Amino acid sequence: MSQKESIPKRKQERIKMFDHIVFGVSDYEESKSFFLKSLKPIGIVVVDEGPLGIELSTDGKSSLCIRRNGEKTTPLHIALVAENRHQVDEFYQAALASGGKDNGAPGIRPEYSSHYYAAFIIGPDGHNIEVVCHENESQLPDRE
Predict the structure, then answer these.
(1) Could you write out the three-class secondary structure of 40-92?
(2) Residue 66 forms beta bridges with which residues?
(3) Is the CB of residue 46 less than 8 Å from the CB of residue 36?
(4) What is the pLDDT along the chain (144 residues), one digit of tens a residue?
(5) Angle between helices 85-97 and 28-38 (to 10 degrees)
(6) Distance (Å, rounded) from C-alpha 42 to C-alpha 64?
(7) Residue 112 Cα distances to 34, 116, 133, angstroms
(8) Computed over its alpha carbons, how large is the radius of gyration of the chain?
(9) What is the phi/psi pair of residue 57, to 5°?
(10) How far apart are CA 4 and CA 7, in angstroms?
(11) Are 24 and 69 in contact (CB under 8 A)?
(12) What's this model's pTM, rounded to 2 decimal places?
């Protein structure tokens, strides 16, 4: 039995594994601006901001928390879900415009799956930020 087969089948609704992810940044204002602008295409909004930093979310259930620590941390690879491929494309353009560095233009990643459409950007502090859509193109509504 493969690892995929050992995971219990769930309802069609995707169950989230994480409640929140927290990481510190060396330049809080730069990172805050980058993440807000870059992730706007996937619907990210500010849930809370205070002395510790900022909490961002698209659904109010899981969140990305950026902390003011003033130190450069070990770079992370953070992958966020897009509802459609257009959001992946918009993220990529917004992230580049916000000072991110290309780490993989939008496209299918066949090494992951035939439906894995993603873009990768290196953001502040060297974090690899990915936005991915797992939908088959034929299942997506037409865009105009």
Answers:
(1) HHHCCEEEEEECCEEEEECCCCCEEEEEECCCCCCCCEEEEECCCHHHHHHHH
(2) 23, 54
(3) yes
(4) 444 454 455 444 556 678 999 999 999 999 999 999 999 999 999 999 999 999 999 998 899 999 999 888 899 999 999 999 999 999 999 999 999 999 999 999 999 999 999 999 999 999 999 999 998 876 555 544
(5) 150
(6) 13
(7) 27, 6, 12
(8) 16
(9) -155, 155
(10) 6
(11) yes
(12) 0.84
Question: Tokens 């873009």 sit at which residue?
Answer: 119
Structure tokens that stand for 22 in this block: 């927290």
Phi, psi of 72 (to 5 degrees): -75, 130
> What are the tokens at 58?
């698209």
